[in-house]
Design a protein that fits this description.
Strand content of chain A: 35-45%
Radius of gyration of chain B: 23 Å
Strand content of chain B: 15-25%
Structural class of chain A: alpha/beta
Number of helices of chain B: 12
Largest sheet of chain A: 7 strands, mixed
Number of domains of chain B: 3
CATH architecture of the largest domain in chain A: 3-Layer(bba) Sandwich
Oligomer: heterodimer
Helix content of chain A: 10-25%
CATH topology of the largest domain in chain B: FAD/NAD(P)-binding domain
Bound molecules: flavin-adenine dinucleotide
Distance between the termini of chain A: 60 Å
CATH architecture of the largest domain in chain B: 3-Layer(bba) Sandwich
Structural class of chain B: alpha+beta
Helix content of chain B: 25-40%
Number of strands of chain A: 28
Number of strands of chain B: 25
Shape of chain A: globular
CATH superfamily of the largest domain in chain A: FAD/NAD(P)-binding domain
Number of helices of chain A: 9
Chain lengths: 421, 491
């Protein structure tokens, strides 16, 4: 029944996908489709019932569902956007045929002129960090716990330890405390928190929850349900220091140990993945190495603010539409963007300059570790294209820099972003 | 007094051995009850092992292990179709890294021939590296065993049990045997929390606890020592690291740390071997991980450690003799031992079952074939293995197949509901994982866990707070604490 053609098909109805759909529609795409596997749009925002969303985009503080709600409304207002909920994409082919499945329509095929990947990310698990010990009930990823608490209304524990001080870990520490659960500690293997500073203050300090930096869990105890964890301090190489072990009793361990972009569909298709971001290599239009396949949001690189996700969705939506209408001009120069010397990741990883490009190009970067009083420099060989002073650069906070496009017209074919101490 | 039940034969233990015996004995006109202490079958050693269909060249000549391994390997070929088993005969390699090890391989080859293993041959370094390009350049040659293979132990045990149930066997879970009543040197029945069960024959397939069971019937002729083996499992995205099963050259005590594909295309490394004092200790350890990583690197230098998805530990039930203990008790009449079933226990299970049936026959049990015996399990439809039209057809029959719950392994809600309502249906989140693999993929249940919890509660008609992860007391969620702060969303 859905054997239909769309100009732009977006896989994933989270903030990236929603912004992409709105932008595709506003940029003149005639038929836009959003495919979402959950029963409602909004993605992970629907379980993020705390506030702090939308300060950049809407200049006000919204909750996750509140932020999602605004975009859902925009999608609903645009009659050329079709939404398929409760629908899973099983495969995508090179010639842009999508196989999807849902209970109402069964299995079906759709063709698209352009496809945008907006599948978001998944949480790293205990297995990925190889924490030794037993495998009892009560060990969950923070996101799964968040879903149970906020959407289903159940508590995963009454005495909680959280491993990882990423934003979800911090938010869940406060959330559990608000529910009357005792939060014993948040442990972080790095000597700094990976979360936003405001979350460290508002979620831990305001609730007197101890944060153990440079600490990890050596062992999980408990046969049926977790009974406690053995913790220890770690050295600079993240190796546990003998003699610093201590035991924390708990009936729940939440893991917030990182997010991984969900790129199974893109990988199967043969889209090139950046080993550092774990997302597709994209250009400034968010087009991947395969023509007509775009990507936006956490599927590209893990963002810390949804506002940037929406922005990326808009870019992808706009240019996917341009691609679908054959309006992207010929490329007359390709510049590779790489990172080095303290800068860990950069997006986009490619800049394809077209005839008549005038807009500045925004680079989104993350550093490898916290550094103070540094300069971020964009280098073309030995020449500095641009420099920006940073009082502090933290891995947890994305750095954004705009490069005027005319500077790129004269640059080398490869530019590098670095930190200068 | 609680319920009492009367049967001909009680089987204690719902691992691969107990279930294979149940299925074998279901061929005869006998009343059989299988008792398992846990909420699900295959939660003991059967759930954590190398899952390899061994060819049979390891075990000492004339040992029960050798005999039953080779026979079991053979029997699985026909069982695969009858019971719809997940099993593949892929061949296996034992690799040598120096000339001394090459000599050991020649000995193994000879031993294998004496054990009756077909098709063994030594292959050259080049032949090995063509098949397995990621192996260490130090490799000098290998012993190739064409009858080696992979299987999926949980679904195999469940398939045995399901077929047994279809043929009249009763399976009781959460039913630990707490005592065996012996009268005049003869077994008369077993005590369980669900009541006393009268039986003339008790088959002891209680895995690591087999010596405890035996002692309940006053037979202390053997002891079981638990020996732990740890594993690391890797994501399918690195599934081509090796293409089959790679063993190192074995030492005197163990087959060593291997690197192998699983039948579902993941990779695993392990196991080490560490004696333990606690039969229930299945914790993984820092030391164990180090040991298996080092061991595996000798075979494959570049291990994709960042693609690890889980770690687990299995416990070998090692009898003091070192061999399987399969015999009628000489102390208590009616007690039949199927104990000390360490590796190659999975492979041997169907042959152990044949042997137990023969022992019962010798003990005077009347083995009249059951006319109605149906050896076939209807094949399970795995959504992700159907083609487009097949998928369309099963969704048309049951729209729940159109809802994918596990995105890593593409498992539908329909499959999950079927697994809950099948003959020995899943009762726990891990029970569903063992049957269908949601939660066994790269997200390890991060996405599907909450959904599966909700489906279990709905289908079993129990509150969410009663849904368990795995063991009897492994409930996962509490009701919210009254008085806790409610945050409402402003949409
Ligand atoms: C590390 C490791 C690797 C292995 N690799 C392989 C391999 O590659 N190939 C191979 O062929 N074999 C292998 N094996 C061996 C194989 O896994 C075992 O031989 C086999 O699983 C044993 O099955 P079982 O039924 O005897 O024991 P189990 O699976 O342990 O079953 C015993 C059952 O008895 C129940 N039980 C215990 N006490 C009671 C009681 N009082 N009342 C009721 N129920 C009770 C337990 O709960 C359990 O379910 C390996 C084993 C290990 C540990």
């Amino acid at each position: 029944m859905y054997e239909q053609n769309f100009q732009v098909v977006i896989i994933g109805g989270g903030p990236a996908g929603l912004a992409a759909a709105v932008s595709a529609s506003d940029n003149g795409a005639e038929r836009v489709l959003v495919i979402e596997r959950d029963r409602e749009l909004g993605g992970i925002l629907q379980q993020c019932i705390h506030n702090g969303f939308g300060l950049h985009r809407f200049k006000e503080e919204l909750t996750g569902p509140g932020y999602a709600g605004r975009y859902i409304k925009m999608v609903q207002e645009r009659s050329n956007i079709t939404v398929l909920l409760d629908t899973m994409v099983l495969s995508v082919t090179e010639n842009k045929t999508i196989v999807g499945v849902n209970p109402q329509d069964g299995i079906f095929q759709i063709t698209a002129k352009a496809i945008i990947f907006a599948m978001g990310c998944r949480e790293r698990t205990r297995g990925a960090i190889r924490t030794p010990g037993t495998r009892p009930a009560g060990v969950l990823t923070a996101g799964a716990a968040q879903r149970m608490v906020n959407m289903e209304g159940y508590l995963p524990g009454k005495k909680v330890v959280i491993l990882g001080s990423g934003d979800i870990g911090l938010i869940m520490a406060r959330r559990m405390a608000l529910e009357g659960t005792r939060v014993e500690a948040v442990l972080e293997i790095m000597p700094y928190s990976n979360g936003l500073t405001r979350n460290v203050v508002q979620c831990l300090q305001d609730y007197n929850i101890p944060l153990y930096l440079a600490h990890t869990i050596l062992k999980i105890h408990g046969k049926e349900r977790i009974t406690g964890v053995t913790c220890a301090k770690v050295d600079q190489n993240m190796k546990p220091i003998a003699g610093t072990e201590f035991y924390l009793e708990c009936d729940c361990l939440l893991l917030s140990v990182g997010l991984i972009p969900e790129n199974e569909l893109s990988r199967e298709l043969g889209i090139q993945i950046d080993g550092l971001t774990s997302g597709p290599i994209v250009d400034q239009l968010r087009q991947t190495n395969m023509a007509g396949f775009f990507a936006a949001g956490n599927v590209v690189h893990v963002h810390d603010l949804v506002d940037f996700v929406s922005e990326e969705g808009e870019i992808a939506g706009k240019y996917a539409t341009a691609y679908a209408k054959s309006e992207i001009g010929a490329v007359n120069k390709v510049v590779a963007v790489t990172s080095a010397d303290g800068v860990r990741t950069v997006v986009p990883q490619m800049i394809n300059l077209h005839e008549g490009d005038t807009l500045p190009i925004r680079l989104y970067m993350r550093v490898g570790k916290t550094e103070r009083n540094v300069k971020l420099a964009i280098m073309s060989g030995a020449q500095i294209l641009l420099e920006k002073k940073l009082a502090v650069a933290k891995p947890g906070e994305m750095i954004v820099v705009e490069v005027p496009s005319d500077k790129l017209k004269t640059s080398d074919d490869k530019i590098t972003v670095i930190l200068k101490r | 007094m609680k319920n009492t039940k009367k049967t001909d034969i009680v089987i204690i233990g719902g691992g691969i051995v107990g279930t294979a015996i149940a299925r074998e004995l279901a061929k005869y006109e006998l009343d059989i009850v299988l008792l398992e202490q846990h909420p699900d079958l295959a939660m003991g050693t059967t759930k954590a092992n190398s899952a390899i269909l061994h060819a049979g060249f390891d075990a000492p000549e004339k040992s029960l292990k050798a005999l039953l391994n080779v026979r079991g390997n053979e029997l699985y070929r026909s069982l695969k179709d009858e019971l719809d088993l997940e099993l593949a005969v892929t061949g296996s390699l034992v690799v040598a890294t120096n000339e001394t090890e090459m000599k050991t391989l020649t000995e193994l080859e000879q031993r294998g021939k004496n054990n009756g293993v077909a098709g063994l041959k030594i292959i050259s370094r080049d032949q090995v590296l063509v098949r397995e390009p990621n192996l260490s350049p130090d490799i000098v040659g290998a012993l190739y065993a064409p009858t080696g293979g992979m299987m999926w132990p949980f679904t195999a045990a469940l398939a045995f049990a399901e077929n047994a149930i279809r043929n009249g066997v009763e399976v009781l879970t959460e039913c630990p045997v707490t005592g065996i009543k012996v009268d005049n040197g003869k077994v008369v029945g077993v005590d369980t929390p669900q009541g006393f069960i009268t039986a003339n024959y008790v088959i002891n397939a209680a895995g690591v606890h087999a010596d405890d069971i035996s002692r309940m019937a006053s037979d202390d002729s053997f002891t079981i020592t638990p020996r732990k083996g740890e594993y690391i499992l890797f994501d399918k995205s690195v599934g081509s690291l090796v293409n089959t099963i790679i063993f190192p050259t074995p030492s005197k005590i163990s087959k060593g740390i291997l690197v192998s594909q699983t039948i579902h295309g993941n990779i695993f490394i392990g196991p080490n071997a560490a004696n333990s004092s606690d039969k229930e200790d299945v914790a993984t350890t820092t030391l164990g991980m180090k040991e298996i990583i080092a061991g595996a690197r000798r075979l494959v230098p570049n291990l994709p450690l960042s693609s690890a998805i889980t770690q687990f530990t299995g416990v070998r039930a090692v009898a003091d003799s070192g061999d399987f203990v399969i015999r009628a008790s000489t102390i208590t009449q009616g007690l039949i031992q199927a104990a000390g079933i360490q590796s190659p226990g999975l492979t041997s299970a169907p042959a152990i079952a044949e042997m137990v049936a023969a022992i019962l026959g010798n003990q005077g049990v009347n083995l009249t074939p059951k006319r109605s015996f149906n050896p076939i399990n209807p094949p399970r439809v795995a959504f992700n293995q159907l083609d487009y039209a097949g998928k369309q057809a099963i969704i048309a029959k049951n729209p729940l197949h159109g809802r994918i719950i596990c995105r890593c392994e593409t498992v539908t809600e329909g499959e999950i509901v079927d697994a809950i309502h099948s003959p020995c249906g899943a009762r726990t989140v891990d029970g569903i994982k063992r049957r269908l693999r949601p939660g066994a993929g790269r997200c390890q249940g991060g996405f599907c866990g909450p959904k599966i919890t909700t489906i279990l509660a709905r289908e079993l008609n129990i509150p969410i707070t009663a849904v368990r992860k795995d063991t009897a007391e492994s409930q996962m969620f509490y009701d919210k604490i009254p008085g806790g702060c409610e945050v409402t969303a402003d949409v």
